[in-house]
Amino acid sequence: MTWTIANPARQVSLFSLLAVTSLGYFVDGYDLIIFSVVRKASIIDLGLASTEEQIKNIGIGLENWQSAGLLLGGIIWGILGDKLGRIKILYGSIAIYSIANFANGFLSPEWGNVYTWYAALRLLSGFGLAGELGAGITLASEAMATNKRGYGSMAIAGIGLLGFVTAAWLGSLNVFKWNTLFIIGGVAGFVLLLFRVGIYESSVYLLQRRASVARGSFFSLFTNRTRFRKFMLCILVGLPMFFVIGLPIKFASNMARAFGIEGVSVPTALITFYLALALGDVLCIYLSQKLKSRKKPLLLFNILNLIIVLAFIFLQPANANQYHYIYCPLLGLSVGYWAMLTTNAAEQFGTNLRATVAVSVPNFVRASFIPIALLFTSIETTLGTIYSAAIVGVACSLVGIISTVFTEETFNKNLDYAE
């Protein structure tokens, strides 16, 4: 089914949309990564663990709770985005993750059952954080000309990813306590809600809403073979990203110890990684526009990722500086296709399922940390950290490459249709 948009009742200011959506992803990125920055300090301060092994295991558990929230939120916010509109889920998601992170800043041993509270707040935060990026890129994709959509995604991701860098930078200063950094993220989210005023709903969505088609039917992605195949490929293309983020970066100090290196800092690893990832996102979108293809840049980046993962494992960094300033940026550059991943997902499906897919796909990719971590920890005791990382990392890279090959090309695709 297709339709034509003529004289929409409400016009979206493209500049305002991109500016506010980019700022939104900036805050989203800060709040998403801040737990990884303060994980060790908060676990020790709250009396949850004392040894490095205990800290690692509890940290992985809490990361899994946040990932579970992202997975659940990715489904629910996506459905609501197609049923109620893209703007409403932006407001709702920001409010929830801001409340969760603000409350996390006041967590203390006096609460009792500290781990349960911490896990619940990470779950709630993940749930809220799930709605931001997919909804923003869906809005931008529907507002821009077909041959310029990539530039909108580039602006959102290029600016937004600096939120990750800011969180890591503030953590590296050792000026603010871990709970203060959580509170900063919560307050920034509340302020962001004020900036959302004046941003209007996608005219493509508003017109489609008048049509008698089912909207936001998540399970329809699984009842039709073609839709299921496209949906799974969208997710699997991004699998290498959350091996890299989940193990060599978020748990950089643990990986470094396996290499026999001391002095590796998670905040520093996050800063250099996300700066390179932001650069990679800009480069990936630029290549997409020049090559007039979504698939080709994704394939190039996933092949690059395989090469760099192999180098990281078998040509190991010799010291903390090499880890921080050579391998972390190279790993970040190799998975610098986050905006392209979400744009590709948004372009694969009709307007009545677009938000469902564009919101759920990046969060399914984020939640892939759960099986990745489970596989890694299950074989680590037998094979050791390095060889376990090699097996999991190479497997993720190969899955990403194969999935990209079979993904449908969507560059210049008309998005004015329903499933």
Description of the molecule:
The protein has a single domain, classed as Growth Hormone, Chain: A, CATH 1.20.1250.20. Helices cover 76% and strands 0% of the residues. The chain has 20 helices and no strands. Helix 1 packs antiparallel against helix 4. The N terminus is likely disordered.
The whole-number mean of residue pLDDT values reads 89
Terminal CA distance = 7 Å
The CATH topology: Growth Hormone, Chain: A
Number of strands: 0
Identify the overall geometry: globular
Number of helices: 20
Portion of residues within helices = over 70%
Class by alpha and beta content: mainly alpha
Find the CATH superfamily: MFS general substrate transporter like domains
Q: What percent of residues are in strands?
A: under 5%
The SSE string, one letter per element, is HHHHHHHHHHHHHHHHHHHH
- State the CATH class: Mainly Alpha
The Cα radius of gyration reads 20 Å
Structural domain count = 1
Please name the CATH architecture: Up-down Bundle
Please summarize the sheet with the most strands: none
Residue windows where pLDDT falls under 50 for at least 5 positions = 1-12
In short:
With 419 residues, the protein is mainly α. It has helices at residues 14-45, 52-83, 86-104, 114-129, 132-143, 149-160, 162-172, 178-195, 203-208, 220-223, 225-237, 239-249, 252-258, 266-291, 295-314, 320-334, 338-348, 351-367, 369-383, 385-405. The chain crosses the membrane at residues 12-38, 58-80, 89-107, 119-139, 151-170, 182-207, 228-249, 269-287, 299-318, 324-343, 355-379, 385-406.
